[in-house]
Amino acid sequence: MARYDPKAAEPRWRDAWTAADSFRTAETASDRPKYYVLEMFPYPSGRIHMGHVRNYAMGDVVARYKRARGFDVLHPMGWDAFGMPAENAAMARGVHPKAWTYANIDSMRTQLKLLGLSIDWSREFATCDPEYYGRQQAWFAQAFRKGLVVRREASVNWDPVDMTVLANEQVIDGKGWRSGAVVEKKKLTQWFLKITDYADALIDGLSTLDRWPDKVRLMQENWIGRSKGLKMTFRPAQGAWPKGFPEGVEVYTTRPDTLFGASFLAVAADHPLALALAAKDADLSAFLVAARAGGTSEADIESGEKLGRDTGLTVAHPFDPAIRLPVWVANFVLMDYGTGAIFGCPAHDQRDLDFARKYDLPVREVVLPPSADPAVFHVEQEAYTGPGRIFRSQFLDGMEIEAAKAEAVSRIEAMGQGEGATVYRLRDWGVSRQRYWGCPIPIVHCATCGPVPVPDDQLPVLLPDDVTFDRPGNPLLRHPTWRHTTCPTCGAAAERETDTLDTFMDSSWYFLRFTDPDAIPPVNREAANRWMAVDQYIGGVEHAVLHLLYARFVTRAMHDMGMVDVQEPFAGLFTQGMVTHETYAAQERLANGGDRWLSPAEIEPSGNGWAERGTGMHVRVGGVEKMSKSKANVVAPEDIIARHGVDAARLFVLSDSPPERDVQWTESGVEGSGRFVQRVWTEVDAVAEAGLTGGPPDPELERAVHKLVKAAGEGLDGLKFNAVIALYYAFLNILRRQREDKPEAVGARAAALQKLIPLIAPYTPHLAEEAWARLGNAGMVVDAPWPDYDPALTIDEEAILPVQVNGKRRDEIRVAFGASEEVVREAARANAVVQAYLSSNNLVERKIIVVPNRIVNIVAA
Ligand code: ANZ
Ligand code: ZN
């Protein structure tokens, strides 16, 4: 019997698909429903890795499945091609970012094509193509005209190594996400997109995304951080208040019910009051520098040491002017949240309590826990944040928290000292980057007209090619001529903006562009209407906040600018798990004491363990971790494909675990997938050799295949790739058994295989084509419809049998399909309706006749 040779067959079928242009998207809308499936497009680092293989295999299974199901499918691919690594390569190796990027794209395209993906390559683009980024400039200019883009001085996160501004999201534990350098605060004039205008819409829209993972929706909600509370003013009481604060200090609180528990006010180190005081107080000024030092993440503040400084000023309590509260500067108060000032209520807020204990400020309990005794309830080291009734609070006494909040807000409002307010954690999106390899911001600075957007007919603003990377900083800024231009409005000499856009801009609308990559307007509205929203978006959970939030925002902004009709870009989102591998460490360590990691290719079996290839030295097996260069635990997709074929690789990454979980790559695992491929071929080849027809029917096999068709479709609808593959394995066992038990039933097995092959085609498309041809089919399986099934043949778990007494139907019983006569008899006897009928008519059972799976008749007299 012939073995299947993936090396020969796979390239042949890829060529056949290309020759037939099998994956070109239908150009015009038809009466077929549409389906847009998209995997997050890759950064062209130069090589694809197993994570890509898994991500694209998933998308491809969905795309091929939907095509077979009769959808017009859009399944495009492109490149997220701007960004720092290209510049780093330029600095390290003197290669131009453009040359580096396009060379990487070429080699990755070649590698991706090896995977046999059903992609419409005619729509491919890279975000560094002028045809793409020029159209991005067009929409940016339009957003500028609509007031959605603003320029303001802002304190930014400055990465001193990459010499660029980072978004908050790109600062991880106080360090740059790419360089790892400790981030500094710096004031710069920056371009911002007003994403905060969309804070409510972006939260409210989440509730419509019912095909998104809950955890991603929650992460977005927390990121936007909508909080409802009160902004209120504490008026000055005593002390030398600097000029400019006649009203005192405005604070933001979510707990106005605890106002009588206030024991101090605290302002941020950057608060205008702190700055004004520090101008005349060297000590305070030194303190402010120290207070600004620590990290500003929520975790840093929670755990970090609370530092404060009494300003000597006091304010009056709004409800009881006799109460005076001291005003402090504190490092745990952030300037860019709320109003940059708080009232501290130590008994009911842990940070305030830590602070109060450290600086010996009063702790006044005002919320009494249910069933606590007011005479003895005391907060010591742990703030009480639970439910209860208000006490020691004059007119609020006895109220539940929510009622007390409402009462306090309405009194403050009536006094004209404040208003209910909603505040957000979300900040506007700083999009300026002082880098070369990005989309130039299409703005000209004119001394007379100010910043002027570049008119559409002068776009794209092209990146100059002749730039140098011999020192850090922005090459556009030091280019001799590029930035000198004339003002589009008045014609005077003017300067181009030299900042480029955050690359997250590039990825926040590419999915719209795929619907018509050549459109003159940034988005072809008609094409977008035909294809959007993306029905299934697939990518890593690391993009749960940034990319996915920006993409939602940009889509909404474009909607409001009248450019598109869609509001939410991704109707379905799936976040896939990673590909992991064991790690291997060499016997001897590196000079610095660290592990010297070995790749799976550098080791060989030795005894019951592993040895380093070449040296024979013992190898320590470490944990199972995400495949990464730093741990050397990577296998190269090309190697795997060369050894096992693409189909086995595709099958394996989807096999062993649910798609949202990590999958551990093992050699034995991919070998198992290779055996699956051979076993399918064995069955196909066997019926083909036997002539494909003739022999008796095989009802058992027929039922099994109909059940399989049903379950495979339902499984794929739920993206349960691994569960479906497990069904295929089980079905192969049935096939083999039937072949051995009923070798003459050739036609029945051929019919079963005619259904099986389209089912496996999304996973192992090359094998499926070869098998389809061997089964005598004329066209390609890629054009074959998804098989159908007869529901009657799938519900055999249970049989429903009418129960007759003397030939008249009295009731029915449910038994397992194929249940023995004995079982059916007992069930009929046990039936309550039958028993009641027999006894009330004084009848006694004489005989029970069972027609299996059909009917029972009790003969009684
Ligand atoms: C008084 C109070 C009493 C508070 C109490 C809490 C408990 P969320 O829910 O996250 O919005 N806060 C306000 N602005 C702040 C800033 N710029 N930096 C640090 N903390 C700030 O949190 C709102 C609460 O966080 C506010 O309510 C305020 O403390 C504090 F028993 O006011 B609260
Ligand atoms: Zn001008």
Describe the structure.
The structure is a single chain. With 861 residues, this protein is α+β, with helices and mostly antiparallel strands. It has 26 helices and 35 strands. The strands form ten sheets. Strands 26, 27, 28, 29, 30 and 31 form a six-stranded mixed sheet that branches. A four-stranded parallel sheet has the order 2-1-24-25, covered by helices on one side. A four-stranded antiparallel sheet has the order 4-3-7-17. The longest helix has 23 residues, at 667-689. The relative contact order is 0.11. The mean pLDDT is 93. Bound molecules: ligand ANZ and zinc ion (ZN).
SSE blueprint and pairings:
Layout: H1 6-20, E1 34-39, H2 50-68, E2 72-74, H3 84-93, H4 97-114, H5 130-145, E3 149-159, E4 164-166, E5 171-172, E6 175-176, E7 184-193, H6 199-206, H7 214-224, E8 226-234, E9 249-253, E10 264-267, H8 272-278, H9 282-293, H10 298-303, E11 308-316, E12 324-330, E13 341-344, H11 350-359, E14 367-368, E15 389-390, H12 401-414, E16 418-424, E17 429-430, E18 432-433, E19 443-446, E20 450-453, H13 475-478, E21 484-486, E22 493-496, E23 500-501, H14 503-506, H15 510-513, H16 525-531, E24 536-540, H17 546-560, E25 573-576, E26 579-586, E27 597-598, E28 603-606, E29 609-612, E30 618-626, H18 637-644, H19 646-655, E31 663-664, H20 667-689, H21 699-717, H22 721-741, H23 746-760, H24 765-774, E32 798-805, E33 808-816, H25 821-830, H26 832-840, E34 845-851, E35 855-860
Parallel strand pairs: 1-2, 1-24, 10-12, 24-25, 26-31, 32-35
Antiparallel strand pairs: 3-4, 3-7, 5-6, 7-17, 8-9, 8-16, 10-13, 11-12, 14-15, 18-23, 19-20, 19-22, 21-22, 26-27, 26-30, 28-29, 29-30, 32-33, 34-35
Helix pairs in contact: 1-24, 2-19, 3-4, 6-7, 8-9, 18-19, 19-20, 20-22, 20-23, 21-22, 21-23, 22-23, 23-24
This protein binds ligand ANZ and zinc ion.
